[in-house]
Amino acid sequence: MPQIKPVFKCSDEFKSVFSQSSCLLTISVGQEVHEGEKFLSTVRLVNEAFKECTVLVDDSLQRHTMSLFSNLSPDELYQQSIVEGDLWLERSHQSLAQLTIPNKIIRWDKWLYHSLYEKYHHEITALYDTSRHYKDFINTSIEEFLTRLLRRNAIEVSYETAFRRCLDYLKEECTALRLWADTGYNFEIYPSRRNSAMTATHKIFVKSESYNFLVESVAIKFKNRAQLGPQVFTVE
User: Fold this and answer.
1) Beta bridge partners of residue 5, listed in sequence order
2) Beta bridge partners of 27
3) Which residues, given as ranges, of the chain have pLDDT below 50?
4) Which residue of 17, 87, 103, 116 sits 20 to 30 Å from the alpha carbon of 185, by its own alpha carbon?
5) Contact at 8 Å (CB) between 199 and 138?
6) Rounded to an integer, what distance in angstroms lies between the CA atom of residue 149 and that of residue 30?
7) Interatomic CA distance for residues 47 and 101, integer angstroms
8) 107, 25, 104, 23: which is closest to 62 by C-alpha?
9) What CATH number has the domain spanning 5-223?
10) Contact 81, 66 (CB under 8 A)
11) 210: alpha, beta or left? (left if phi > 0; alpha if psi -120 to 50)
12) Each residue of 197-214: pLDDT tens digit?
């Protein structure tokens, strides 16, 4: 089989400053694209392009997704999500060791327990409740996700409950985006394009502050690869 080849999907303007920039490599635990050869090829690409890299393991965030397939309590889902993160770190150790630029690994709880998390989360929620346009961006992201999910999986909850849990996920993710901006990451690296909820949040809360190259979205396209499978969690 031909070797998987990843390439950055972004403007030449972005690429021109990569070598002087920091990136946040976000990992959706359970996604095939962050496993094995695909993840190793991503690490090598980032290693060649950027000045420094922070690997963010989105483990506890996935408790919201896991709740669509389980009747466990919130505390039990949280604990399982942490175990998922532990297992990902174990099986990704050799790939992560390929990073030779200055780097560090952090986990989702860094943002969940950040001193500004509650303030930013309240502001995200308030804007969702008062701005029709912002609400539409977030709801569109949820509907697109659930449409894809339901084509491939059966879920344990009603559509209405699933929608609410996806809303919790996105509010949390959008809150974290603002904290990433405060931290000063120049680019976020993720295999797919940023969803409309995150794009709108970036435009409203980050671009409005006139920052240059601050958590700009950079997608990765994989050549010579088969169709990716659905998100899978290890812990039952």
Assistant:
1) 223
2) 57
3) 1-2, 225, 227-229
4) 87
5) no
6) 14
7) 6
8) 107
9) 3.40.50.11710
10) yes
11) left
12) 999 999 999 986 555 799
